[in-house]
Design a protein that fits this description.
The protein is α+β, with helices and mostly antiparallel strands and 307 residues long. It has ten helices and nine strands. Helix 2 packs across helix 7. The chain starts with a strand and ends in a 12-residue tail after the last strand. Bound molecules: zinc ion (2 copies).
């Protein structure tokens, strides 16, 4: 990997805070765009088969989101209460989950069952279709708490996919105005989850701003650049790119807390997508792992245990 020289200070190139759009909710076509990108990246990629398999899963997420039943969402009183206490309104660890997420998991599994899948994937689907409510809820609790130690790598993407659809449905229905910044800038102001990656918008259309991308609800929130999203330190921040790459994906690592976050520079490639391009650059994770650094947040479609 090539270390890069630090040339900017936090906020140096940013517009005044009041002029910056702080939160961008997920679009209702999120999963369709993600599936397209996964398919594109799968061609000629060493993990091409896996990326193509995930594209099918993400297709199923889009179909499920398109038909998601209307749910009762937190009302104005709850919204005001959360804002007053600086709590995420759709807190992934605190919110009572509507059982609809399990119905939608079944939908996703049934859609996937119609695809031509490897026998191992079909077995996993059959096993999850038979799983008890308790087992699925326990799995959801663990995944949302970031504890993947007892979660099977084969089952994780399916269960996480259903949870993502549920949270994307809620975040995209409520819109950006009901949410406020949290004290902790590195967690999602909508659901309190950690980011999968960050994007740097192009200087022409997006002022070169950095947005962090929620691993669960896919909301994007603004955070100044050259600042660790995990511990908010502005010292000991280093950037790396893969040798021979065009630098569209960089790793930003922090010496203070030993964590790192991938950043996607849309100016270099405007087609990049936060989850898909993260999965296509797992080599960077292996190199950072060898260097003793850990990710700031998960990619819920991939269990780090099988890296
Ligand atoms: Zn979120
Ligand atoms: Zn840090």
């Amino acid at each position: 990997m090539n270390p890069e020289t630090r040339i900017l200070e936090p906020g140096q190139i940013e517009a005044p805070a009041g002029q910056i759009r702080f939160l961008i909710p997920p679009g209702r076509d999120l999963f369709a765009r993600r599936a397209d990108r996964l398919r594109h990246l799968s061609h000629g990629h060493p993990m091409g088969e896996y990326l193509a398999f995930l594209a099918l899963l993400v297709d199923a997420q889009q179909e499920t989101l398109n038909q998601f039943p209307a749910l009762t969402l937190p009302d104005k009183a709850e919204q005001a209460l959360c804002r007053r206490h600086g709590m995420p309104l759709l807190g992934s660890r605190s919110m009572h989950r509507n059982p609809a997420w399990r119905t939608e998991l079944t939908n996703i599994l049934q859609k996937m069952n119609k695809a031509a899948l490897p026998p191992a994937a079909s077995e996993t689907i059959a096993c999850l279709l038979k799983a008890s409510e308790n087992r699925l809820e326990e799995m959801a609790d663990r995944i949302l708490a970031g504890d993947l130690s007892d979660i099977s790598p084969q089952e994780l993407p399916f269960v996480a996919a259903a949870l993502q659809v549920y949270w994307v449905y809620m975040a995209s229905t409520l819109g950006e105005d009901v949410f406020d910044r949290l004290d902790q800038g590195g967690i999602c102001p909508v659901c309190g989850s950690y980011p999968t990656s960050g994007i740097i918008s192009s200087t022409e259309t997006g002022q070169g701003l950095r947005y962090l991308n929620c691993s669960l609800c896919a909301s994007q929130w603004h955070m100044v650049r050259i600042k660790c999203s995990n511990c908010e330190s502005t010292h000991g921040i280093n950037h790396f790119i893969l040798e021979g790459s065009n630098g569209a994906v960089k790793v930003e690592s922090c010496d203070d807390c030993n964590s790192y976050l991938k950043l996607l520079y849309l100016e270099k490639d405007r087609h990049m997508e936060t989850v898909a391009d993260d999965l296509a650059t797992l080599t960077l994770d292996m190199l950072m792992d060898n260097d003793g650094k850990s990710r700031c947040g998960p990619n819920l479609l991939f269990h780090p245990g099988i890296r």
